[in-house]
Write a structure and sequence with these properties.
Layout lengths: L1 H30 L1 E13 L2 E12 L5 E4 L2 E6 L2 E5 L6 E4 L3 E13 H5 L5 H13 L3 H8 L3 E9 L2 E4 L3 E2 L3
Antiparallel strand pairs: 1-2, 2-7, 3-6, 4-5, 4-8, 8-9, 8-10
Length: 169
């Protein structure tokens, strides 16, 4: 009978520590601020459009933050067109600090864009020329696509997904 009480106390203590740890992890993940930094079109070629971005993490808490390398997604009209390659890379963010996560790149092939714009193939040469001449704003606006970017990651074991942000060409 004494062994059952000892086991019960041990399980109760373990459950209490687990709940405390989960509450701290959730507190840190809720108080941290994640933002896309300089989402941009990096390259336009016959293969598609290459996007790059960094992610800034502001950790105002006294606990460190562990997250997986974020997966960046490109959206059009509420539909995901493409995502960066997922990596199971762990990143630690120190307490009371602002850090940038590695540059994340994703390539959106023209075939993905053709799902939303039927005549994209006819516009590819103009887009490449506009990119070379640094007039990408005009070319992307002519496509009339509301491109958005978001990211998802695990923060202290809790899934986090940002709201999609409009991309400026």
């Amino acid at each position: 009978m004494a062994m059952n009480k000892l086991l019960g106390i041990g399980l109760f203590g373990f459950a209490g520590l687990f709940i405390l740890r989960m509450a701290r992890a959730q507190n840190v993940s809720e108080n941290a601020l994640f933002t896309l930094v300089n989402p941009r079109i990096h390259l336009v070629n016959l293969g598609g459009i290459s996007f790059k971005t960094e992610i800034s993490v502001n950790n105002p808490t006294r606990d460190s933050l562990n997250l997986t390398k974020p997966v960046v997604s490109i959206w059009v009209n509420g539909k995901v067109l493409g995502q960066s390659v997922a990596e199971n890379k762990q990143i630690q963010i120190n307490p009371l600090s602002v850090s940038k996560v590695d540059t994340i790149e994703l390539v959106l092939p023209w075939t993905a864009l053709s799902k939303v714009v039927g005549s994209i193939i006819t516009q590819v040469p103009a887009l490449i020329n506009a990119f070379k001449n640094k007039k990408l704003n005009q070319a992307l606006s002519s496509l009339n696509l509301p491109l958005e970017m978001s990211f998802s990651t695990y923060v202290n074991g809790i899934f986090f997904q940002s709201q999609p942000e409009k991309l400026q060409g």
